[in-house]
Amino acid sequence: MSFLMMPIYAFFVLQRVYLLLMTAILYYIKLTILCLIVLPFCMVPLFAQSYTHQDTLRGSITPERAWWDLNYYDLALEVDIDNKSIQGSNTIFFFVTIPQQRMQIDLQQPLEVTEVVYKDKPITFSREGNVYWIDFPYPLSSGARESVTIHYEGVPRQAKRAPWDGGFSWSTDSAGSPFVATSNQGLGASVWWPCKDHMYDEPDSMLMRITVPAPLTNVSNGRLRQIDYHPEGRRTYHWFVSNPINNYGVNLNIARYAHWSDTLHGEKGILDMEFYVLEENYEKARVHFQDAHRTIRAFEYWFGPYPFYEDGYKLVEAPYLGMEHQSSVTYGNEYKMGYLGADLSSTGWGLKFDFIIIHESGHEWWANSITYKDIADMWIHESFTNYSESLYLDYHFSKKAGSEYVIGTRKNIINDKPIIGPYHVNQRGSGDMYYKGGNMLHTLRTWLDDDALWREILRGMQKEFYHQTVTTNQIETYMEEKTGLPLNAFFNQYLRDVRIPVLEYEIKGKKVKYRYGEVVEGFSMPLQVMINGKLETLRPTNDWQTFQGDKAVRTFVVDENYYVLQKNMH
């Protein structure tokens, strides 16, 4: 190419680049429009997320997990706060259900297993990402009760945005003393201790022996059995949980805590209540934490007895917003009403209670007693607990207050993807499991139109699935049987689809034509509407129907307690 030809050639090159760029932009615009049109009508995302082998190992019941049943954990751990490191062991007691030789144990990097001991002898192990394969010297016998001890150490993952991005939170109080805590829902307990890190299997009980430097206190789950005082200025706190506990419900909290005790005369007898707060917050916490008593009162009315009387109830201040750790609820709402001082419903009712105390305590029933088997069904935890906020207001204020609150939270719903996530890969569904899930339950309660039966159903689930791990199918089946309503399409609509039902209608004189739009096959929930100020019941399907009045229809309003939209077709 000659030097003189280069400007001309460059012109054509730039022209070609410009055309390619414009083509790409037009393609992106078309694709965006396609997404906006198609996505609302799909029950699955347009772009499927890919998953790795590690996701499957973490999220599925692998053959190396399936052959043994958890019985008991004995977790011993020393926390080196200066170096932000930990060292310890977990002895796992289990029953052999199928003869097998290889076991899967989960421990996330950068922590490392240093030794595995079986019958007082080291045995071989290997690592594959965040999974350790433990090889016993021979196949273990079916029906045997066995144990294995996993020794480990390292610098655990530090939480970036606890509790949503979990791990260890290393903080300090106003005096500069250490303020340390763990949180790990979704991420997994294996981020800080070796375990069978899948929700389907829980130990029947657990011991935690946590060693910290004096004068700090460690607070974990269950009841404090003893404190060992070591001559070199360390203390070991022995906490014992006598009930089944899910992995993410296990926690440790380390600080210079002030502490007081109280009791509550509840449905199952005397409930011991313990409170641990930073020394600087002691006086205001004594007043503010009265919401805990009001919470137990309301939830025992709606759900039945607090599920862990044997282990007591604790509210523990933590350096992050809060989490539902079993019998050790963590709190960081800055002693404000609402959600860090905000009303999530914009109705005023959200400032009548401390959101974290009410919400996280509600999880003692819906997460810790009734627990999802697979995180894809996380709505079982969050939808019922979200609605428990409304039930708290219902109990202490009025049904109207609870209804206005849950309806007010609809502004927070995104409808980005289905509430139920993909199974077997440790993946949750949409965050709409909170506000949309709560409104789904409120809609079902409105449809049922029997508050006594509604309460009976909620309490009945706590009996039926007490201290169990469950699936969505079990919850759906139970509610359909007890309500007597055809709920298959209802749950498909709100849990497995992103669309909100739309009541489409036309008014012509004394007649109202109506039908459901944007619904799954078979969706046919009745609706109560006000026509000319008179309450009427419509039974829409996706076929047009007609309501005949005795006078011209001037006003038409759908009961706002149903989470549906309405559209006048004229």
Number of domains: 4
Number of E-state strands: 29
Total of DSSP H or I helical runs spanning 4+ residues: 12
CATH architecture of the largest domain: Orthogonal Bundle
Mean pLDDT: 92
Structural class: alpha+beta
Q: How would you write the strand order of the largest sheet?
A: 5-4-8-2-1-11-14-13
> Helicity, in percent?
25-40%
CATH class of the largest domain: Mainly Alpha
Contiguous uncertain segments of 5+ residues: 1-47
Q: What is the distance, rounded to the nearest whole angstrom, between the alpha carbons of the first and last residues?
A: 68 Å
Within CATH, the superfamily of the largest domain carries the name: Neutral Protease Domain 2
CATH topology of the largest domain: Neutral Protease, domain 2
Tell me the β content.
25-35%
Shape: globular
Q: Largest sheet at a glance?
A: 8 strands, mixed
Radius of gyration computed on alpha carbons: 28 Å
